[in-house]
């Protein structure tokens, strides 16, 4: 099943798109697994996902930790930490 990936801020800039629909390999069980898989997809992806500690995620519009499951997810957003202003 296809999952919609959304990228924000400098993640979007490095990847060169604001989102995409992908079929995740069966080996992807967590957000961290996804980040590792994405990092291997090319230079922009490698740059965006080189340091997972700098990323935040939301699965189906709920903020999650990187060890959260992506099983059955329809949408996964990846972005830098949000700061107040």
Any key phrases for this structure?
5 strands; 27% strand; five-stranded mixed β-sheet; alpha+beta; 85 residues; Ubiquitin-like (UB roll)
Describe the 3D structure.
There is one protein chain. The chain is α+β, with helices and mostly antiparallel strands. The protein has a single domain, classed as Roll (Ubiquitin-like (UB roll)), CATH 3.10.20.30. The chain is 26% helix and 27% strand. It has three helices and five strands. Strand 3 and strand 4 form a beta hairpin.
State the CATH topology: Ubiquitin-like (UB roll)
CATH superfamily: Beta-grasp domain
- What is the top-level CATH class? Alpha Beta
Q: What Rg do the Cα atoms give?
A: 12 Å
Number of strands: 5
The portion of residues forming beta strands comes to 25-35%
Uncertain segments: none
Q: Helical percent range?
A: 25-40%
Q: What count of helical segments does DSSP give?
A: 3
| Number of self-contained structural domains | 1
Task: Using the alpha-carbon principal axes, give the shape.
Answer: globular
Short description:
The chain has 85 residues and is of the alpha+beta class. Helix content is 26%, strand content 27%. It has a five-stranded mixed β-sheet.
SSE layout and pairing:
Elements: E1 2-7, H1 9-15, E2 19-23, H2 31-39, H3 43-48, E3 56-59, E4 62-64, E5 75-79
Parallel strand pairs: 1-5
Antiparallel strand pairs: 1-2, 3-4, 3-5
